[in-house]
Amino acid sequence: MENIRLAFQGIWGHKLRSILTMLGIIIGIAAIITIVSTIKGTNEQIKQNLIGSGNNVVTVQLYQSDYVYDMQYSSLPTGVRPIAETQRAELEDLPGVDKVSFYLARTNLMDTVFFRDTAFSGKVYGIDRAYFQVAGYRLAQGRGFLDSDYENSRKVVIVDRKAVQSLFVDEDPVGQTLEIGDEAFTVVGVVEETSQFTPTIDNLNDYYLYTDTSGGAVFLPDATWPVVFQFDEPQSVAVRAESTDDMTRAGKAVADALTASQITGQTGGVTAAEGEEEGVAGFSYRSEDLLEQAQQLQDMSSATNNQLIWIASISLVVGGIGVMNIMLVSVTERTSEIGLKKALGAKRRRILWQFLTEAAALTCLGGILGVLAGIGMAELISQLNAIPVAVSVPAIVIAVVFSTLIGVVFGLLPAVKAANLNPIDALRRD
Asked: For residues 300 and 283, what is the distance between their CA atoms, to the nearest angstrom?
């Protein structure tokens, strides 16, 4: 405590010199805190943009080799059966899985779905009873699907808000008739997402990456799907994970279970049909790993910023050299004081720790001021450039500790020099 008191007394006694000495430390720490806060904020934005409002839903689809098997342009895959209802409980018991829903889908249906003379350019889904709950939709108008709709394969549909805007301009959609594949379907309800989420768009690339430009979605009971499309189509699966961190594990678990149980023949592929080459089919179920996509984008954004951190760290080295220089000056100025203390019985260790404490206090104070400046700079950048920031508490702690260590390392030479002074020679100096 005595060393700390003397250290701050010396800093306060030479305020301007101390501030100029700490300037390199302050600038270095401020730059690092600003960069780290920006990286963390950007990474969280990327994660939120991909995962959305946090409904923790992962899509599991049928793949052939490395591509999604598109039923819109392909025939039924040989050897792949529709997912049985009896598998639902088995899939929901897998680690990290909360609930699953089986669905079928078509996209870009401008020649298939019409409202009067208006073509629909969105998506059509054939859904089971659990889909709206799993995918995070709630009924906004009309009614939902009834058990009798499934049991009797009624030609009824539910549309989302975007489909209402693109098809039913200034009209009540409930009760209207849609033509899907030459069949008339009655709109019985409107749904909307439970949690609305708008991704942060900072540039044109983000616009194309995150923005949904489709005309919305039309939902019909999966039992009615064969009226318009094909019988016995293998479904995709919407998997709601127990938490965001479980999304990767839950999606992979469901995909692996479906691949093992739904596909006949050898593991990882379908037995080729007669006349085909063995192994050509190569079907498997795979999950859409949003967390992995987010991590890839985060790694890309962080790579350049990590280089900036190393560049900013150079100023800490420069600041440490400044601390060493000023401590050498301090030793020279206080030679007589050191000689008097040693003449009165002060040991080398006591002199060493006094100057090390002063150097550490100087850089620790500079680190704290640098953290405050870094937080202020991060907030200012966020306000001026609309870049999200997230202050990292571990980064703050590490910055202060690291700045203190710089004081110890670069203050060691002056402290050793002071501790090794000969008391007679020290007292002889003016």
From this structure: 31
Q: Is 174 left (phi over 0), alpha (psi -120 to 50) or beta?
A: beta
Q: How far apart are CA 419 and CA 424, in angstroms?
A: 13
Question: Of 227, 110, 219, whose CA–CA distance to 157 is shortest?
Answer: 219
Q: Is the pLDDT of residue 203 over 70?
A: no
Report which of 22, 7, 15 is spatially closest to residue 319, judged by C-alpha positions.
22
Q: What is the DSSP string of 157-201?
A: EEEEHHHHHHH-TTS--TT-EEEETTEEEEEEEEEEESS------
The b/e string for 351-363 (b: 16+ C-beta within 10 A; e otherwise) is: bbbbbbbbbbbbb
Note whether 111 and 268 are within 8 A (CB). Answer: no
3-state class (DSSP) for residue 97: strand
Instruction: Quote the pLDDT of residue 377.
Output: 85
122, 181 contact by CB (below 8 A): no
pLDDT tens digits along 18-74: 788 778 888 888 888 888 777 777 666 665 655 554 568 888 989 888 788 888 777
Which ranges of 263-347 does DSSP label H, i.e. alpha helix?
290-333, 335-343
Round to whole Å and give the CA distance between 272 and 69: 16
CA 346 – CA 327 distance, rounded (Å): 20
Task: Give the H or E element holding residue 256.
Answer: helix 247-262
Nearest C-alpha neighbor of 167 from the set 106, 107, 119, 112: 119
Q: Which residue has the tokens 């006349």?
A: 275
Using alpha carbons, list the distances in angstroms from residue 287 to 60, 247, 308: 4, 9, 35
Q: Which distant-in-sequence residues (6+ apart) come within 8 Å of 11 by Cβ?
A: 18, 358, 361, 362, 365
* Phi, psi (rounded to 5 degrees) for 145: -75, 140
* Separation CA 208–CA 198 (nearest Å): 14
CA 418 from chain centre, in angstroms, equals 52
CA 282-285-290 angle, to 5 degrees, is 130
3-state DSSP assignment of residue 224: coil
